[in-house]
Amino acid sequence: MARTIPTAGLTAAQRTEIRRLLDAAFLGTFSDDDWDHSLGGLHFVVEERGVIVAHAAVVQRSFVHGGRAWRCGYVEAVAVDADRRGQGFAAEVMDAAESVIDRAYDFGALSASHAGRGLYVARGWLPWRGRTAVLAPTGLTPTPEDDDSTFVRLVPDGSELDLDGTLACDWRNGDVW
Questions:
Q1: What is the pTM of this model?
Q2: What is the pLDDT of residues 94-106, one digit of tens each?
């Protein structure tokens, strides 16, 4: 079962261990900005014999859609140790992340790699059919490169989203989605 730990509750050793897991899982492409994006919310970890073997994080972001602001639970930094893939660890951390999203946010969102899409679709995440954008310092800026990788989770008793509309995320350094 996944443990839930707020960023402020992570020890220095846990932070280092999670970062090493992410660097290995993303084959060295997990940047300092990507790491920064995963901090400030909740971390879901699975440990095996005291070693973190799976991780996901949910951070709060502000999105604009349909003429209003939405509180979004954004999933970041999902990774499983290469030797333990296919054993249900991703499902464990995602179960915990989705439980928080369903209880605390208007909806969930994430940006999925091509390889990761199957996991999220199988779990009921919906591909965003409309356009994506970012509320950049210069104003609303389309992000067409993210149109096909954005997925949302509609929460029980949540508000309806127009999946064909424009979904704009808040600005941040590095990849905005």
A1: 0.96
A2: 999 999 999 999 9
